[in-house]
Structure formats: C-alpha cells, structure tokens
C-alpha cells in the first residue's frame, strides 16, 4: 500500500493507493505490531482508531459514496426557534436594542444570543450598530413584501381604504389573522388630520373583543372554540360589527368581514377613531363600511 499524508482543513488524513482516505492524527495510523524495539513499545501505548467490522468494510462502493443524514435535527430546529425568539424581542417603536435588553426579553444567555445574532446578521436579518446595539435587518422587509404581494390584495384593498377614509374622516385598516391569538394590520389609510398614528401597517395586536376581534371570532374562530353567533342582517345587507371602549376606553370601531371564494374569511375591514367623533356617526357610517366590505368580497369571488 502506498500512503500519503496531508490536511483537508478539518485534520490530518492519509490516502492509500486506491484513493480512500480517513482522518488520523500522526502515529495513530501506524500499526505497532510491525515495529520492534523502543518505537514499537511507544506506539503500542497510543490508542489506535477502532477498526470497522468486516461486514462494514465489505459494503458496496455505491453505499460508501452516499451522504448520510444527521442522526437528529432536533438541535437545528431548536436553534431556529431561538433565532425567532430573538427577532420577536423587537417591538413597535424599537429602533435598536442592546444585548442586555435582548437577554431580558428572551430569557436566553448572552453568549447564546450573540451566536444567534451572528448567524442572523450574515443573512441580513439583523444589523449591528456602531454602538454595539442591534436593529432589525433589511431582509425582514423583503420577506414582508413577499408575504403582502403573495396575498394578491395590493391592487384591491388600499384604494377602498382611501375612499372610506375620505368619506368618513376616520382611519381605515385591513386586518388578517396571524394565529389563534393575534392579528396583523396589512394596510392602513390615515385620516387627513390626525394628532397621532395609533396603528401602522405591520403592527400586531391580540385578537381582542373589539369589533375587529369579533369578526374573527364569528367567522374564523380559534381551533377548538365555538364561533360567536352571526349578527342579524337585513335581507340583501352585509354584516357589520360596531363596538365602543373595548380595547381603548376612548376609541370606537366598526368592522366588517371580507370573504373570498367559498365564503372563507380573508380579513377584516375596520374603521376606527375616537369615541367622541365616531360613535355619534355610527349609524351613518356603518352602511359605508358594509358597502366597502361587500365590494371587496365580490372582487375576491366571495
């Protein structure tokens, strides 16, 4: 047998004449039984690599060339979950977070967070700032854009929200269900004059018991929960939910379901504002919300 030694970046190896190679560390590849004297005595004391059983050594060449799956993917799944936990530590209004805040919000060790941040940074999911703090990365915006465009609502919903806001002077939003506990604002049209922006596109909230949350509770209840009763609707009418002071004591909301084909709920169209301004107008505004939701439902084939 002709043997050659070298390095592949992960340790030293020897190669036989037939091209097969195996990791080794120096003298471990030698057989002390063929040596005599002092050299044989020294090498006999060095543990050698275990020799594979004959049945393993005789397996077909094709099987030796296959890539073997790792014994378990549990650690990889856990790492992904921890990375999502780190990203989830960022909240509306956070422009950057230091490591100590990330550790406090996630409950993870700082050393673990730093390893995860390094991986996330390589994929542009986070950005390290000059002061050592961390901010969300540009890749999140790209993924959010892919999600929004994938829904196929971009050319339908925003013009309807703009028209509704112009007709009522109140802010209009379109919500989709994130999971059985949360909803996310997909689009928002701001009123012409507003002192503060309460909700922006991309904001996430609990489903809650206000008008928007009730739309989901009635037409898309959480798994294992019974749906709320459907409100009575006049013949030819469209269902609308109006609430006051449920999420915010000074706020009121009017929401209607938007359906796609098969009468599947696609989202909730909501008009919201201060109780002082919106609630006295609720009976006048409810038909406008119903008409807008009905128009979107027709456009979606619902």
Kindly describe this structure.
- This protein is an alpha+beta fold.
- It has helices spanning 37-44, 54-57, 61-64, 74-87, 99-106, 110-122, 138-150, 157-168, 211-219, 275-278, 282-299; strands at 4-7, 12-15, 21-24, 126-128, 134-136, 171-177, 182-189, 204-206, 241-244, 251-260, 264-274.
- The chain has three domains: 4-52, no CATH class; 80-140, Winged helix-like DNA-binding domain superfamily/Winged helix DNA-binding domain (Arc Repressor Mutant, subunit A, Orthogonal Bundle); 152-299, GAF domain (Beta-Lactamase).
- It is built from eleven helices and eleven strands.
- The strands form three sheets. Strands 8-7-6-11-10-9 form a six-stranded antiparallel beta sheet, sandwiched between helices.
- Strand 1 and strand 2 form a beta hairpin.
Entry summary:
This protein is α+β, with helices and mostly antiparallel strands.
């Amino acid at each position: 047998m002709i043997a050659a030694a070298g390095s592949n970046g992960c340790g030293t190896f020897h190669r036989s004449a037939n091209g097969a190679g195996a990791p080794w560390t120096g003298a471990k590849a030698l057989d002390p039984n063929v040596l005599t004297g002092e050299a044989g005595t020294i090498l006999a004391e060095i543990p050698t690599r275990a020799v594979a059983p004959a049945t393993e050594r005789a397996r077909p060449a094709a099987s030796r060339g296959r890539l073997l799956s790792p014994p378990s993917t549990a650690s990889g799944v856990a790492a992904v979950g921890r990375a999502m936990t780190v990203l989830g530590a960022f909240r509306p209004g956070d422009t950057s977070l230091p490591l100590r805040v990330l550790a406090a919000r996630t409950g993870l060790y700082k050393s673990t967070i730093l390893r995860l941040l390094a991986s996330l940074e390589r994929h542009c999911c986070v950005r390290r700032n000059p002061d050592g703090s961390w901010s969300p990365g540009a890749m999140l915006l790209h993924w959010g854009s892919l999600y929004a465009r994938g829904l196929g609502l971009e050319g339908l919903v925003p013009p309807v929200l703009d028209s509704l806001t112009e007709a009522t002077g109140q802010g209009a939003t379109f919500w989709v269900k994130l999971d059985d506990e949360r909803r996310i604002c997909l689009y928002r049209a701001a009123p012409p004059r507003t002192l503060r922006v309460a909700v922006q596109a991309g904001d996430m909230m609990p489903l809650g018991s206000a008008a928007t949350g009730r739309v989901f509770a009635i037409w898309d209840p959480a798994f294992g929960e019974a749906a709320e009763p459907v409100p009575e609707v006049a013949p030819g009418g469209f269902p609308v939910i109006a609430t006051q002071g449920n999420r915010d004591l000074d706020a009121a909301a009017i929401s209607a379901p938007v359906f796609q084909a098969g009468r599947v709920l696609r989202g909730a169209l909501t008009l919201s504002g201060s109780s002082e301004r919106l609630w006295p107008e609720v009976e006048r505004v409810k038909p406008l919300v119903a008409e807008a939701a009905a128009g979107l439902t027709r456009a979606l084939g619902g």
